[in-house]
Specification:
By secondary structure, the protein is of the alpha+beta class. It has three helices and three strands, in the order βααββα. The protein has a domain at about 5-65: Multidrug-efflux Transporter Regulator, Chain: A, Domain 2 (Orthogonal Bundle).
């Protein structure tokens, strides 16, 4: 049986081993290109587009350029641990 040209978001989620909502978030952020089909606007991802997306993610990983997840902020510890406690615990 030939590979289908288009995949549903359920198919994409299964292939990427993520939830449907995570697959949909990729589409909303335009990281994964999809089209809407039919009156209910169901999303479809072309198989070649999914393969391109996966290859791009591998290339980013190899280059060390994987972007931080949206909303994830880096938390850095202060240089001096006592500065945040006002010197508590000292003599």
């Amino acid at each position: 049986m030939p590979t289908p040209r288009f995949l549903t978001l359920d198919d994409v989620a299964e292939i990427l081993n993520v939830s449907w909502s995570q697959a949909y978030a990729l589409v909303r952020r335009k990281e994964l290109i999809a089209i809407q089909i039919g009156g209910r606007g169901q999303w479809r991802v072309e198989t070649d587009e999914l393969e391109r997306f996966i290859a791009q993610k591998y290339a980013e990983a190899r280059a060390g350029t994987v972007p931080a997840e949206p909303g994830a902020e880096e938390q850095t510890a202060p240089d001096d641990a006592t500065s945040s406690t006002g010197g508590l615990g000292r003599g």
